[in-house]
Amino acid sequence: MDKQLKTPPPYPIASVDHALRAAIILQMEGGATVARIAERLGVARSTAHRVLAMLVYRDFAVQDESRAYRAGPVLELAAHSQSLVSRLRAVALPHLHRVVDLLDETANLTVRTGDTARFIASVECLQALRVGSREGMVFPAHRTTAGLLLLAGLSDDELDDLYGAKRYQDRPEDLPDLSRLRTELRRLRRNGFAVNQGRSERGLVAVGVPVRDQDGTAVAGLSVSMPSVRYDPHRLQSLVAALDTAAHALERDLAEQV
Could you tell me the residue range of the domain that residue 220 belongs to? Predict the structure, then answer.
């Protein structure tokens, strides 16, 4: 069968095409400088810089310590875990709805990509004062409930590699205190749950538990988020119990799809 060539759309948008081509280059080739992207796209360096800046803004790209650009959380997620994330989201949504019905707070499912955590599913509760949907948002992993739970699955060496100082030399303020982080992660491993009080956003409290695959590896975090004025520490045990029940049910459904 002859290979058919794609026909360009009748009204192409050059800026969109440039951004998509730049994203493909970063995903397929591992990274590039502004000059390299400008050369590949056939545009001025200033244009290439604007394209890359927009990709960074939308988490399709990140800039490393050498000032080169590489694939960001969105492209990394699509590259090596698309099928898992797609299955996780589809399987999780009914369980998120049940959690919301039971607890009347917003429920979320989150995965980790490198040192970031991405919300892949979110179901809002119906209370007037509530935490809005976080679906699609990306945060530093160590500042989110689920991100901490997933970091807890790493060894000390893996944690050192993930938070190597060279990766943060251009943004040292973003590098967490690794000694404190290790202490916190050891506590999370013992407890089996995480509580985030204002860490990712002021006035917000989140409680979460891990979701594990058949090998026992944490692949996601299931959490509920609420305004801090509504959080009662005396309810923590019941919140964790409800989340554990939902996480185990999600795990069973996920295993059946393998």
Answer: 80-256
Are 88 and 108 a contacting pair, CB within 8 Å?
no
Q: How many CB atoms lie within 10 A of CB 201?
A: 16
Q: How many CB atoms lie within 10 A of CB 36?
A: 15
Question: β-pairing, 69-71 with 106-113?
Answer: unpaired
Q: What is the CATH number of the domain that holds 61?
A: 1.10.10.10
Same domain, yes or no, for 199 and 245? yes
Q: How many CA atoms lie within 13 A of 110 on its CB side?
A: 36
Which among 198, 217, 216, 208 is positioned nearest to 239, based on CA atoms? 208
Q: Which of 71, 89, 117 is the last residue of a domain?
A: 71
Decide if 43 contacts 34 (C-beta within 8 A). no
What is the per-residue pLDDT across 87-127, written as a single tens digit (0 to 9) for each?
A: 888 899 999 999 999 999 999 999 998 889 989 889 999 99
Q: Are 122 and 104 in contact (CB under 8 A)?
A: no
> What number of other Cβ atoms are within 10 A of residue 239's Cβ?
25
pTM (2 decimals)?
Answer: 0.69
CA distance 162 to 150: 13
Structure tokens at 243: 């989340």
Q: Residue 6 domain-assigned?
A: no
